[in-house]
Structures are given as C-alpha cells and as structure tokens.
Design goal:
224 residues, alpha+beta, Phosphorylase Kinase, domain 1
Length: 224
C-alpha cells in the first residue's frame, strides 16, 4: 500500500501513531496516511462508507496490532485552531453540533464509539463539520464490563473511559457536551458553564452517570 504514495509532510506523531499527508504517485491526488498501534476494526468497517461529516476511508489494513489506513484529505481548519482566534456563536455551535451528531449516528449505528471527540478532531470544510481520527474508536462489546484499553483526552473523556465501565454511545455524548461548552465559553464546563439553554444541554450531556445523559445523539440533536 505504502509504495503507491509519496510523502508530502508529517502532520502529527505520537509514541503510538503517525499521520502523514501523502500524494498518490499515479493520480497526483493527496490523501492521509495513518499508521498506529491498536485496534483498527472501526476503520475497517468504515472503508468505502460515504458521509459528508466523516472522511472517506479508502483502505485499512492491520497486522499484529499495527494499522495502516489511507483516507480522504479534508482541507480546512480544525476547531482547536479556530478557537485560538475566537469563540463560536450559539448558532454556529448548533450547526456544527448537529453535523457531528449526524457523523456519530453513522458510527453508533455500526456499534462504534469514537471515544476521542475534541476540537482537534473536528475539521470545518466550508460549511461541513467533519469528525476525524478513529484511532481510539472501538466497537461496543455486549457483556463486557470495561474497555480493554483506556484511551481518550483528559477533560473530554467521560468517567467510564477510565475503567469504571465499558464506553458506549453515551460516552461520545459526554465528550460532545464538553466540546459544546468549550466552543461557547473557551472553558471546561466545570470551570465555566455556557449560559441559557445550551448550558442546560451541556449539563445533561456531562452527567457522571451515563444513564442520566441523553439516550442517543438523535435526542441530543432535538435538544440542540
């Protein structure tokens, strides 16, 4: 797979992963080449699936826990970069959150949980909000009491991601609630809660007990 592409630049590197912008040697088109250690089952389920709020996954291969993924290059700025300049208005936030709920509905419909929703993993491509990076994602396993691997980003990760119970769709709802608050206030809801109706939405999303959160992203979409 790698031989078909030539490197353009390294975008991100961590001890367990790397993300590179590459160019297809024959077509000249640019793609993302993602390498990481872990479970690549969600990438494999997403291959060929088309959704305006998710990157198109072209290829996904795994060998002994080492994963290689080729995906669509999403041109735009991530929310983390945009939040350095200014906060989002309530209307802008609602529009983005609805689109992220649509992306999550696709993932959740295949029993996948993203587990790492944060500003850096949302790219605005024109008017489209695109949820990226499924390195921490996993399929929900009925009957399992906890996740096999603790992954996520501190501040955005739900309490159950720290081994209290198995993560499920409500785990992403928690993280999305934190994201809503950060987009509106620049702060974690524990430090400064968004005002009015959106603040009440954030409070319900971020309940410690998953059963007290919205049941699924469709209920969250309606609330927003």
């Amino acid at each position: 797979m790698e031989e078909e592409y030539e490197p353009v630049r390294l975008l991100k590197q961590t001890p367990r992963s790397s993300v590179r912008l590459v160019r297809h040697r024959s077509s000249g088109k640019r793609f993302i080449l993602r390498q990481f250690t872990g479970n690549g089952e969600v990438y494999q389920k997403l291959v060929g699936l088309s959704c305006p709020n998710l990157p198109l996954i072209m290829e996904a291969a795994e060998r002994d826990g080492d994963n290689l993924v080729v995906e669509e290059f999403i041109e735009g700025d991530n929310l983390g970069f945009l939040l350095e300049g200014a906060l989002f208005t309530p209307r802008e936030t609602r529009d983005i959150v609805r689109q992220l709920c649509q992306a999550l509905w696709v993932l959740h419909s295949m029993t996948a949980v993203h587990r790492d929703i944060k500003p850096e993993n949302v790219i605005l491509r024109g008017k489209d909000a695109v949820l990226i990076d499924f390195d921490a994602a996993r399929l929900h396993k009925p009957g399992a009491e906890t996740d096999t691997q603790v992954l996520g980003t501190t501040g955005f990760a739900a309490p159950e991601q720290y081994g209290l119970s198995q993560s499920d769709v409500r785990t992403d709802i928690y993280s999305l609630g934190v994201l809503i608050n950060v987009m509106l206030t620049g702060e974690h809801p524990s430090k400064k809660l968004a005002e009015g109706h959106m603040g009440r939405v954030v409070q319900r999303c971020t309940q410690v007990n998953p059963h007290k959160r919205y049941k699924d992203v469709l209920h969250l979409m309606e609330a927003v």
